[in-house]
Amino acid sequence: MTAARRAGLAGSAGVFAALGDETRIELVARLCEGGPQSIARLTSGLGLTRQAVTKHLRVLEGAGLVSGARAGRESRWEMETRRLEIARRYLERISLRWDRRLRALQKHVEGN
Fold first, then answer.
1. 68: domain range?
2. Which residue from 44, 41, 79 is spatially nearest to 61, judged by alpha carbons?
3. What are phi and psi of 78, to 5 degrees?
4. To pair with 104 at 20 to 30 A between CA atoms, which of 9, 64, 79, 98?
């Protein structure tokens, strides 16, 4: 395994770990669809306290997926798509590899 490949895998591991929670996936979806948002807006309809949502956002921030900034008394959060794109490319490479292997298996089974 090349150093670049190891780095991509290591960088993606934190992203996948952070996305391993359905609340965090929901927060990412909200930020992707609605752009930068306040804690109040992100908390709306989740059935969680602002403190709980903030803890989830801090995990996402630690993985490089979101960033937050204070504007007066309000915190606004937004997506940082670079790390998500790296993880997506890594999954795409894995998918392509599996596609090739499945095609080879299909040819073998069909006798071609």
1. 3-110
2. 79
3. -145, 160
4. 9
Task: Quickly state the pLDDT bin for 66 (edges 50, 70, 90).
Answer: very high
Pairwise CA distance, residues 47 & 32, whole Å? 20
Question: What are 43-64's pLDDT values in tens digits?
Answer: 999 999 999 999 999 999 999 9
The number of distinct structural domains making up the chain is 1
* Tokens representing residue 26 in the block: 């929901």
Token pair 């395994």 in the structure block, residue: 1
Overall average pLDDT of the 66-93 stretch: 89
CATH of the domain at 51: 1.10.10.10
**Residues listed for the chain:** 112
Identify whether the C-beta of residue 84 lies closer than 8 Å to the C-beta of residue 64: no
